[in-house]
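Record type: ASSEMBLY
Status: queued
Input:
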Amino acid sequence: DTGVSQDPRHKITKRGQNVTFRCDPISEHNRLYWYRQTLGQGPEFLTYFQNEAQLEKSRLLSDRFSAERPKGSFSTLEIQRTEQGDSAMYLCASSPRLAGSWDHNEQFFGPGTRLTVL
Amino acid sequence: KNEVEQSPQNLTAQEGEFITINCSYSVGISALHWLQQHPGGGIVSLFMLSSGKKKHGRLIATINIQEKHSSLHITASHPRDSAVYICAVKETSGSRLTFGEGTQLTVNP
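Status: finished
Output:
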């Protein structure tokens, strides 16, 4: 399977614990995005990387959240001191670079990591 | 008011019916995506369009840039089409996607 993969698929944790999620994008996709989706809502943008550089972060990404993409391939999203409000589906997507423009490039989504904070 | 609004929020249809889901947006965009999400979370991209119309099988997507409106049509609907359909726009000023809240479609046999 050469699609976007995420690990773990499900995570249950107690409030105050730290959690880390991993995303493996489609090979050679330059851009990698993290989104969060709460029940009954559409996804919300968190952050994105172009290669290893984190180019944009949402206001939703508090200082308890940190994302890395150290070698420009896989990415990790860490949440420190989890709160019940962090319970959500965390989605990763990647997109290829198209010749000549960054516009109009399709994003390919992973299956998501569902986080439950007790 | 959300930047991307979809209607209806919920839609129930009988197998074989023609279905339309609408999306309106209030920002300048470079592209609009229609996505499908099944229970369990996986999101599949159906269309990405910046003008005109695209067709794939029984699915048709149209966009009117001047009116800032897009529609997703499903012809001859089938129970396996039951899913959440999400409209997302890529603003001209950035790379992020801004999503609508989704339309829950249920097609009964």
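Annotation: Residues 60 and 73 of chain B are 5 Å apart (CA to CA).
Annotation: The two ends of chain B are 36 Å apart (CA to CA).
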